[in-house]
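Ticket 4471: requesting a sanity check on a complex prediction with magnesium ion. Repro inputs:
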Amino acid sequence: MKGAPALQAAQQLIRELSAAAPADDYDPARVASVLAGLEALAQSPEGSPPSSDAALQEVADALFGIAALDFSKRPQLRGDGSVLDAVIGCVNMLSEELAAYHLQRNAIEQELERRVESRTLELSMANAQLRHEIAERIRTEKALLESEAQLSQASKMEAMGKLSGGIAHDFNNLLSVIISYTVSLLEELPTPDPMREDLEQIRRAGMRASELTRQLLAFSRRQVMELKAVNLNELITNTTGLLHRLIGEDIELKLELEPQLGLVRVDPGQFVQVIMNLAVNSRDAMPQGGTLTLCTANVGPDGARPSRLESSAGPCVRLCTRDTGVGMDAATMARIFEPFFTTKGPGAGTGLGLSTVFGIVKQSSGTVHVQSEPGKGASFEIDLPRYQGTAQTEDPNSLSRERLGGTETILLTEDDDQVRHLAERILRNKGYEVLVAARPGEALELFRQYASSISLLVTDVVMPQMSGRVLAEQLRASCPGLKVLYMSGYTEDISLRHGVVESLVDFMAKPITPDVLLRRVREILDS
Ligand SMILES: Nc1ncnc2c1ncn2[C@@H]1O[C@H](COP(=O)(O)OP(=O)(O)OP(=O)(O)O)[C@@H](O)[C@H]1O
Ligand SMILES: [Mg+2]
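Returned structure tokens:
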């Protein structure tokens, strides 16, 4: 307040008055105390005028205190009221100064507030941005970790697939031989024979081994698929009888099926197996009973729910199973699709159920997603690309057993000695003429000699020198209508290494069994 003119004027006024008046004319103690009051105000830390009305009142009181002093010896100051005027003038000046100061301070405060506000806004925006970036970063890191985990999981599954597929492929040939020779022996034995039971045992074990091989091939995605446009609702409804028997009476089976469900292009037999495997697992997870729900839905761009397919551009169909069973912890969940991973005791589970599901779904261009927590049940969601064509009706296999033979001439080409002998024997037993070639070169030679009488080429796909497909093409060059039946252990043979197969009509999966070989041969000859 040192620089405030009103206060200085007041101090000046008092000094003048007290100097002009004799000491006994007034009370010096009072003057001193008023002056001290003004001085204190002048020394206020801000060095600004009194900032509140109360403070102004104090100054005014001090000034009027002076005016009330009796300067009796100075009539000129007393009678004409000039002391009072001076004091009032001082107070007015002071309050004007104060008003101006208030105005200025308000403006400064407002400006300050504005700045604080805008800075706060900037800060909070920067803060929000930062939080967003942090969240984004965490999300990216999590996604990265997830995709790394998925990648290592995928390459692990890929390696296991290769291994098991390779083994299964070789086993197929061996099993073809074991099963078929056993069946031939059984057919040749007289009905009551002590060896029958032993042979039956061999045949059953062989069939069981071939079932395991089939599951391994399914896992390694090398199973031959017979694709059809399928409505999964129908598939499920047709399977409920079997499902009820499978899961028993303590488990309630619920269906939540989307009435407008889109079609998928899958092997219906394989998908019955998928549903069965999932249902059996759910049953095992609910030993005290519970609920198993099967549901279907349209997902993807058109459907409400997002799809999990990587190529999520197109619409998909979802098949899911949900149970109220014991659930799984994260460690178990991470391994459930591995072949031979099981938490069930020895003899209780082979650990091939979900590997088969995984392989079939992958081979059908779909994805499987599992969700579970201990004690909270488990759900499996399978997303499959939606098929835009129309549904195919199952063609009833009308060929009866008696019609399985024939008298046509068949050119058989197979480099595996045992499989070749076996196929030859099966075909000859049913009346066919069989020309046998162990190499594509031999087949070409035989064809040159007997072209006119050959009705069908039955050939292996993978052979040294020349693939079965190339062989067929060469023969067809001179005889365009020649019918062909390919035999192979897995789809890779035909689809990847040996040209894409348009239809699987002319294809037969190994292991070959007499029934299937004869039926396929007859179908093709009659087509
Ligand atoms: N619905 C489920 N609830 C809880 N755990 C499950 C469920 N489905 C699978 N699992 C777990 O995953 C493991 C692997 O399942 P998978 O079907 O592959 O083999 P498995 O059932 O043990 O044997 P298999 O099916 O060959 O008889 C099971 O042992 C079980 O621990
Ligand atoms: Mg299982």
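Notes from triage: The domain at 401-526 is CATH 3.40.50.2300 (Rossmann fold). Leaving this open until the requester confirms.
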